[in-house]
Amino acid sequence: MATDISKLRNIGIIAHIDAGKTTVTERMLYLSGAKHRVGRVDHGTTDTDDDPEEQERGITIFSACVKYRWKDFDINLLDTPGHVDFTAEVERCLRVLDGAVTVFSAREGVEAQSETVWRQADRYEVPRIVFINKMDREGANFESVLNDIGPRLGGNPVAIELPVGQGPPHVSDPFRGVIDLIDMKMLEFDPETEGKQVNETEVPDELRDDAMLWREQMLDAVYDLSEDAAALALEDKEVPREMIVSALRAGVLDRKIQVVLCGSALHGIGVQPLMTAVGNFLPSPLDRPPVEGVDPKDREKTLVRRPDPKEPFCGLVFKILPAKTGDNYWIRVYSGQLKQNSRVQCPNRDKKENIAQIWQIHATKKDRDGQVETVGAGDIACVIGPRFAITGDTVCDTQNAIELPSIKFAETVISMAIESESTGDKKKLEETLDMLRRQDPTFRAVENEETGQTLISGMGELHLEVIQHRLTRDFGLNVKFYKPRVNYRETIGGSADVVGVCNRQLGGQQMFARLSVKVSALEESSAPVQVFDRLPPETPLSNTVRQAAMDEIRERAAGGGLLAGFPLSGVRIEVYAAEAAEEGSDEVAFRIAAGDAFDRGLEAAGPVLLEPVMRVELTTPEEYMGELVGDLQQRRAIIAATESRGQMTVITAHAPLKELFGYSGSVRSLSQGRAGSSMEPLNYQPAPQADADSFTM
Ligand SMILES: Nc1nc2c(ncn2[C@@H]2O[C@H](COP(=O)(O)OP(=O)(O)OP(=O)(O)O)[C@@H](O)[C@H]2O)c(=O)[nH]1
After folding, report:
1. Is the complex ipTM higher than 0.85?
2. Which CATH number does the domain housing residue 649 bear?
3. CB proximity list for 346: less than 8 A, separation 6 or greater
């Protein structure tokens, strides 16, 4: 177990699909001494695991995070899927990792999806290093990828390696190793040992001038980052190696630069220097800012926790995996120590949780996975025992509670009603949905007691398809699925000034209240509803009556819009005048007037139905462009960008989700399987009038 936090690295590998994330990961685990497990990670074939220990314990190794040692560093490598349809998975990893290796393909370079993950990493302020993979591929071009990182991603790459040759064996100057620009050594990786054996030699004469030029470029970056190094350079003195490394490290940690390395993970070239670079240039938990949260008892109060074992314990649940022996809770510990057989607080659920067992999952056989008694600040571990927390929840010391910001996941955009075919299955379905919901924070399931159906919601058609398969195939449930529909929202088109009135006999008494309300549309139609009490101080209302009127408006707004009760957004409601009578102007009267004002205001401001719009990315050979664009236009899509990348054209379009059901299948058939598509929620936009009318007819 790691005790020296300064040597601990919590990292993820982020990349476009196919850039080689899995291959790089596998190679790192292999080189650090792990058993080679190709194919398991991305194919999810853990159910065929032949490791009896894994089966017995029901823990799926390599699913969330593995620990390995490289030199004197302890690395926690988090698994991040590259597929944009599951960006939530990437979000949760970015939240708990300290640094990342971004992998690009030397052939395809910076792809659209690389931009998505790069920007996600920017948002979480994650320091990065870059690995340009697939240097052995035909058409590999190190310099062109390097030069794209600035303009396309806003990065500032600094090469610390230079490839020796590029491309496959049959080209005149194939890729065969790298030159380390810091130590000015040539590194070659023996294919006989799958690259395990590294031969270090002097830089050959014919490459020396070129390498010196590249080293100068690297040193220019060092001078910008370190005054001491710049001063030495001015005096024409050699900058010591340690100073170069520490200046580059500081630059990476401050997110001013990204050091760049290259290789071919598939052929075991260049991976050891990458592993060393993870230790040298990526942050330890001590290098990251302390975490901030709020005091659950006084949410105005900000609390801070440092990665110090002496601080009170706090951690974040970032992944939950079901297991026969009790769900596996993956926790990043931010401060203090988490102890086995202890109880911790989960402020998000207002519950106490048991910590029955703590496991560390090692990648190497010699370190055997093991149960540990404690896990310290900065580290990541798998815990068995909790029952209430869901992904994104905080767990903390019961006496020193703190609630960390939860992981933000996008709202669901698609729903489907489901129903168990037999009453016997009903309970099992409920339990399974509950388990899936805890595992997957972007999945919702709400039971409708009137119809007995459950409405499940997710991030897209593919997401619900995956859930559907899991329910029927993995859990053997007999479930009926209805047609999916998009999740609409409601807003208003304009503004209105209205008066809500209550003037009626109720229980033999005359009730009276009038409330003047201004309703207006917010600029952002998806912004939460704002309700303001702007009644002047001289208003003749008691605090309770006034509060009742405001509560009524807030409750009505939370109940949804006028068209069909879909969630309401983008609306501001200001209550600015009230009139009461001598008698009969109590809470009930003002609640009635407030409800009336709400309805009139929304009606007068013009209710608008909003539909989810997706950002679609389509990659196709030129010849299918016409047909695919025609198909997109029929789906009410707006083409936002068209770009040619090598032999492929990449189209970015914005289209309503309602028109995209079955889209990936249609792309495949229109292009004979040659084009591919991916989509992610973009925003909400007004739906066609006919759709809105269908709810009011
Ligand atoms: N020639 C060559 N092929 C590579 C290299 N690295 C990976 N590949 C191949 O590229 C393909 C994609 O590699 P993966 O490691 O699965 O890529 P990934 O980024 O993990 O892809 P996803 O899991 O789909 O996100 C596979 O066929 C690999 O064998 C490399 O260095 N050289």
Report:
1. yes
2. 3.30.70.240
3. 352, 353, 386, 388, 389, 393, 394, 395
